[in-house]
Design goal:
The complex is a heterotrimer of chains A (550), B (312) and C (332).
Chain A lengths: L7 E12 L2 E13 L4 E5 L6 H7 L8 E10 L2 E2 L5 H7 L4 E4 L3 H4 L6 H11 L5 H14 L18 H13 L5 E5 L7 H18 L2 E6 L2 H7 L2 E6 L2 E7 H6 L4 H8 L17 E8 L8 E8 L4 E5 L6 H9 L6 E6 L2 E2 L9 H6 E4 L3 H4 L6 H13 L3 H14 L4 H4 L9 H14 L4 E5 L7 H18 L2 E6 L2 H7 L2 E6 L2 E7 H4 L6 H9 L7 H8 L15
Parallel strand pairs in A: 3-8, 3-9, 6-7, 7-8, 13-18, 13-19, 16-17, 17-18
Antiparallel strand pairs in A: 1-2, 1-4, 4-5, 9-10, 11-12, 11-14, 14-15, 19-20
Chain B lengths: L1 H25 L3 H8 L3 H23 L32 H37 L1 H15 L3 H12 L3 H28 L2 H9 L3 H38 L10 H8 L11 H4 L3 H29 L1
Helix pairs in contact in B: 1-2, 1-3, 3-4, 3-12, 4-5, 4-7, 4-9, 5-7, 6-7, 7-9, 9-10, 9-12, 10-12
Chain C lengths: L1 H31 L4 H6 L5 H11 L5 H13 L7 H10 L10 H36 L4 H15 L2 H15 L15 H35 L2 H8 L4 H38 L5 H11 L2 H29 L1 H4 L3
Helix pairs in contact in C: 1-4, 1-13, 6-9, 6-11, 7-9, 8-9, 8-11, 9-11, 10-11, 11-12, 11-13, 12-13
The chains are: A alpha/beta (550), B mainly alpha (312), C mainly alpha (332).
Chain lengths: 550, 312, 332
């Protein structure tokens, strides 16, 4: 039944989405070819239409979307013309899907193994018994702990990284010809991501499954894909073999994506011996019983950027809450220019509040959607300095100029009329409006596309030089650390694991955990994952049970 | 056929008006017209009916043929029996058309006042509880839990037994009872807003309670609260009508639709003798109540749809 | 299992606590009554002896706390006291024999049974019908059926019960005498005759409640169908009916249970108006009459019965939804 042509052949695919009353184009004429056993990486920023294209390759469109034109062929079958019933017989059996959030994509009411066997039994590929045994073999292959019993747990009883592997096993249950991976590791921490990436690559290679791997992370796709296709706003930018694409991108847009990684600021010495903020022996927690932070101490000097690095649950955001006074520490104190700050923000004076400013991760929730830009930026100026009327307006204009937004154009807009990067700039302007010396940046670039994030980092760098600001940069992204930090504080489980200047931090020897963290960050080199696994002494071909490809 | 002239005909006229009105507004260019271009007929119908009721309620004294409690010698007149009294007269000799118009004015006005009062109480406490949290939130929330554990109609009847049956008492009792639902909503909506980073930013700036509620929270809560106002009004309106129907709500001499339904219900037996005009009389105020609440529900449904549509 | 047990225990304790608080609120109602009780009962022409007699029989000489516990104790043994109208009657015409005293409980019991019968008939039709219609509307979302159902149910919800009731009377009783417009129910009727006389009030309640329940079921299912695990099931090639039955329904149980409980609770309180329209001899009628007469013991008893049923239903729904939650049934 295998034809000689490509497995997937998409021509001039156009998909529209319903926005209010009108259908707007999401995908604007994309071609795609995928050979058997080949892995194609689809990359692009948010709104590029990569998920929509990936789902369309399965003949599936989400509610509120429709195929407006073009053709989709899977192994010679026209999926645009195919009936629901025909498509249904392909889905799960010959084409499978792995979603971004495994936690949300497993049905909470059923055990993992029952969800695993549902497809094979329903499609008549296997029996309940055989499929169950196969599931256990796949779990072992994917290096899930206790492969014999883990399937009998419910989704909420299994961790995120394990669920993601269980979902990959489920996709494999019918030995499909094609699997669409939709950002399968985006929601995971870097150290967990490695395990999942290795497991996915291993199993795809073993069964010779073709795959479409969707991601926004270049370094990840470099490890996984044979070929890379770059999308931008629903259109293809370029496509090439992975190595050629990495070595020699042709189009300006692709080059600019590659270039992001090269921004790096030289380390700067502190401007004064007196730290602007001292965190001294802080222990804190949200409930009386448990501490989230254990005896955390470090200093932040004027004109410097301290990056606080850690995975989710490391307590890095809690440090920020202690500094701002939202979470009074149980022990220890926060000192500003040598003088202790009251533990709770409610007991701090207006001037003390002014001195600690914050920029948030999600610009959408950080700006009141019903206030205009003039009021968002103007309020701190008015509140702290008492400026009104023309003087106030003058100051707002000045601030907008500082963040490189044309005042006349933006001053009367609502946040909804700005792009993500512009909103983040407004957030910066609001922090500047207080004339603070110290600003906490909480994952300020992680919700942004790479190019936009780059612009924000450069802006923050420029402002630091001009205004002598001290930053505390909370992030999980080591590329950002490399770009902007002077000092690095590594946190794990509420403890400071290691702290010191950036150059020391990025040259061995490291603390074990720092090492794990650093080495887990994917690099743009296609051989990086192989090398890493070799270094860590993991046998890629797998010591686990061999399973026959049915 | 009384049924046809009383119900089907006015309904058709209102739907026609809504359709024409929508067509007219649609031709306005720009965003104002765009709202109407995207409006389903149900919502247009709802808006038309609501506007019609508001007009009729405000203008009742001007368009009613007689005074609210004016008594004539001809009592228990059937509809059509005397051209001076289009719908006839009641058992005391009051013109039914006049009673119907004033009844609408009173019922709508009282329901509106009650709802507004409930919102004032409920939203104030709800937002304060959402912003301040802590023990205050706990005390108010638990009190509301207990109040809501007793069905509203039953509780209202109990309280009216205690305080005595008067229109003012009814307004106060229903407003307080209904404010619990408003409190729940305001607290939930406020709670969703309070966790936003812009509220944290305002807190850390040192802003006071007033600024937080009026500048940061209220503008973002306006859309769901407005929709809820429509729904609460319907509920209060129906509750008042039900109480009045039971004889415990709006008290005479004020005209109101609930009481009219009860008083006119004796006519319903005339259907047996084929006198549909008389038999349909009790349905007239009842239908008037239903039509308004249906219209508000249609409008609110559309508003909620638009609101949730705007979010994503 | 311990988490589950603890959660259910908490719910039950909370329910019991609420009942106690509500009973206090209802009892306090008497205390809050302005003016003197006994005079309120007897009106202005009361003789001092009659007032004193009534005071004594109400136990007014004791403290409120004492009286609350006495009253609560009575309630638990099914004794709601004697209604004011009875007291008034006795004080005017003298106490007949002890056996002839009609207590509130005596009046309440048969009427309560009638009300439960009416609510049960309405629920027996409304619950299956509305669940089926709600699921259908959710399945064929946006179709003509869904839109028509939307307009129809919205209209039905928005109409006062007496509007629906009188329309039914007009067409099914007055113009075409198929069913009686007045529900004369008494103990001697056989089941079918009783059912026949209950049709119109039950139909009115069914229309109102079905609309409500159907809309809520539809929304619950639609919310559920938007979840990612439903999309995943569809992408696994699971047929539509199986997506509903196996993937949506087990997760929809909790919201559906809540919908049903909420509407059953509504049925119990919604009967008040319907009973008055159809002169149905239920507890709602009795309640309204007592309110008009300000007959406190009767009002209190009716309130307590309504509130108790309401709280118990909500409690039941709460416990059932906890029991259907896989996260709680299978703790980590």
């Amino acid at each position: 039944m295998q034809s000689g042509g490509p497995l997937v052949k998409i021509r001039d695919l156009r998909i529209e989405g319903l926005a209010g009353e009108a259908w707007l184009p999401i995908v604007k004429g994309v071609d795609l070819d995928l050979a058997r056993g080949e892995v194609l990486g689809l990359i692009g920023e948010s709104g590029a239409g990569k998920s929509t294209v990936g789902l369309a390759a399965m003949g599936f469109t989400r509610d509120g979307c429709r195929i407006a034109g073009g053709s989709i062929e899977f192994d010679g079958i026209d999926l645009v013309a195919a009936s629901e019933e025909e498509k249904r017989s392909l889905l799960g059996r010959r084409i499978a899907y792995v979603a971004q959030s495994a936690a949300a994509s497993f049905n909470p009411a059923h055990r993992l193994i029952d969800q695993h066997t549902e497809g094979p039994v329903l499609h008549g590929v296997s029996t309940q018994q055989a499929s169950q045994e196969d599931a256990m073999a796949l779990y072992a292959r994917l290096r899930l702990p206790e492969p014999e019993s883990i399937g009998f747990r419910y989704p909420h009883q299994v961790s995120g990284g394990q669920l993601q592997r269980a979902m990959t096993a489920m996709a494999m249950s019918c030995r499909p010809d094609l699997i669409v991976f939709d950002e399968p590791t985006t929601a995971l921490d870097v150290t967990t991501q490695i395990e999942v990436l290795a497991a996915i690559r291993d199993i795809v290679e073993q069964f010779g499954t073709a795959a479409i791997y969707i991601t926004h992370d270049l370094a990840v796709v470099a490890q996984m894909a044979d070929r890379i296709k770059v999308l931008l706003r629903g259109s293809e930018v370029e496509e090439n073999d992975t190595r050629a694409m990495l070595a020699d991108p042709q189009k300006d847009y692709t080059k600019s994506l590659w270039a992001v990684r090269s921004f790096q600021r030289p380390e700067q010495p502190p401007r004064s011996a007196q730290p602007v903020i001292s965190i001294a022996g802080v222990t804190a927690g949200y409930s009386a019983a448990t501490d989230v932070l254990h005896d955390v101490s470090f200093d932040i000097y004027p004109g410097q950027t301290v990056a606080v690095v850690g995975e989710s649950g490391s307590g890095k955001s809690t440090v920020a809450r202690c500094i701002t006074g939202l979470l009074p520490p149980r022990q220890g104190e926060i000192r500003f220019n040598g003088a202790p700050l009251p533990a709770s923000y409610q007991n701090r004076s207006k001037d003390q509040l002014r001195q600690v400013q914050m920029i948030y991760q999600m610009a959408d929730t950080a700006l009141n959607p019903k206030l205009r830009i003039r009021d968002i930026i103007g309020r701190p100026v008015q509140f702290y300095r008492g400026l009104r009327g023309n003087e106030l307006r003058q100051r707002v204009v000045e601030l907008l100029e500082q963040i490189e937004l044309e005042p006349a154009l933006y001053i009367d807009r609502l946040p909804s009329e700005l792009s993500g990067g512009q909103k983040q700039r407004i957030g910066i302007a609001r922090a500047l409006a207080a004339d603070a010396q110290f600003i906490i940046c909480d994952e300020v670039t992680s919700a942004l596309d790479q190019l936009v994030a780059e612009g924000i980092l450069k802006l923050l760098d420029r402002l630091q030089n001009e205004l002598d600001l001290a930053y505390m940069f909370i992030t999980h992204d080591l590329a950002t650390v490399r770009a902007i930090a002077d000092e690095v504080v590594v946190m794990k489980d509420g403890n400071v694991v290691e702290a010191g200047p950036k150059t020391d931090m990025f040259t061995p020897p490291h603390h074990d955990y720092t090492d794990l963290l650093l080495s887990s960050v994917p690099e743009m080199d296609p051989d990086w994952l192989d090398r890493l696994l070799e270094e860590r002494g993991v046998d890629n071909i797998g010591e686990a049970a061999r399973i026959s490809p049915t | 056929m009384g049924f046809l002239t009383y119900f089907v005909l006015p309904l058709a006229v209102l739907i026609g008006l809504a359709w024409i009105g929508r067509a007219g507004f649609r031709s306005i260019p720009g965003p104002f017209g765009a709202v109407f271009r995207a409006m389903p007929l149900t919502a247009a119908f709802g808006l038309a009916v609501v506007s019609f009721y508001i007009l009729a309620a405000v203008a009742a004294p001007a368009i009613a043929p007689y005074g609210e409690s004016q008594i004539f010698d001809e009592f228990n007149l059937f509809p059509g029996e005397n051209p001076d009294f289009l719908l006839g007269t009641d058992q005391l000799g009051r013109d039914l058309l006049t009673r119907l118009l004033y009844g609408g004015r009173n019922t709508i006005g009282i329901a509106f006042m009650t709802t507004a009062l409930a919102f004032l109480i409920g939203a104030t406490f709800g937002f304060i509880a959402a912003v301040l949290g802590g023990w205050l939130d706990q005390v108010v929330s638990r009190t509301v839990d207990v109040l809501m554990a007793i069905p509203q109609l039953i509780f209202a009847l109990l309280l009216l037994t205690i305080f005595g049956q008067s229109t003012i008492n009814m307004i106060l009792v229903i407003a307080v009872l209904d404010s619990t639902r408003v409190f729940r909503l305001a607290r939930a909506v406020g709670g969703n807003i309070v966790v936003m980073d812009y509220i944290e930013a305002a807190k850390l700036r040192g802003e006071g309670l007033g600024y937080m509620i009026f500048r940061e929270i209220l503008p973002n809560a306006a859309a769901p609260l407005l929709a809820e106002f429509g729904l609460r009004f319907c509920f209060v309106f129906l509750l008042i009508a039900a109480l009045s129907f039971l004889g415990i709500g709006i008290q005479p001499p004020l005209a109101d639709w609930g009481t009219m339904v009860r008083e006119l219900s004796i006519y319903i037996g005339y259907a047996e003798y084929g006198d549909w005009q008389a038999a349909s009389l009790p349905l007239l105020p009842a239908a008037a109540i239903a039509l308004l609440t249906v219209a508000i529900n249609f409008t609110v449904d559309w508003m909620l749809d638009r609101y949730s549509g705007l979010k994503d | 299992m311990s988490t589950l047990g603890r959660m259910i225990g908490q719910r039950l304790a909370l329910g019991a606590f609420t009942l106690v608080i509500v009973s206090m609120v209802i009892f306090a109602a008497i205390e809050a009554l302005p003016g003197d009780f006994a005079e309120a009962i007897l009106g202005q022409g009361a003789t001092p002896e009659a007032v004193a007699a009534i005071r004594e029989s109400l136990g007014m000489d004791r403290s409120p706390v004492e009286r609350y516990f006495a009253w609560l104790g009575g309630v638990f043994s099914g004794d709601f006291g004697v209604s004011f109208s009875q007291l008034s009657f006795q004080s005017q015409y003298g106490q007949t024999s002890e056996r002839d005293v009609v207590t509130v409980a005596d009046q309440l019991a048969p009427r309560f049974a009638n009300t439960i019968f009416l609510a049960a008939v309405a629920a027996a039709v409304a619950v299956p019908l509305s669940l089926a219609l709600g699921i259908l509307a959710a399945l064929y979302r946006g179709s003509i059926f869904d839109r028509a159902a939307n307009v129809g149910t919205l209209t039905s919800i928005s109409s006062p019960e007496f509007f629906i009731a009188y329309i039914l009377i007009l067409f099914l009783a007055a113009a075409n005498p198929i069913f009686p417009s007045i529900s004369k129910i008494h103990a001697d009727l056989d089941f079918w005759e009783r059912l026949y006389r209950t049709v119109l009030p039950a139909l009115t309640l069914t229309l109102v409640v079905t609309a409500h329940m159907m809309r809520m079921t539809r929304v619950a299912i639609i919310n559920l169908m938007a979840s990612q695990y439903i999309e995943m099931a569809r992408l696994k090639g699971v047929p539509r009916w199986r997506v509903i039955v196996r993937h949506a329904l087990p997760n929809a149980l909790a919201p559906i249970i809540n919908v049903v409980a909420l509407n059953l609770a509504y049925l119990i309180t919604g009967v008040v108006v319907v009973e008055v329209v159809f002169v149905y001899p239920g507890i709602g009628q009795m309640f309204v009459d007592a309110v008009k007469l300000r007959d406190m013991p009767t009002v209190q008893a009716c309130c307590l019965v309504f509130a108790g049923a309401y709280i118990l239903l909500n409690l039941l729904a709460d416990v059932l939804s906890v029991l259907t939650n896989p996260r709680l049934r299978h703790p980590k």
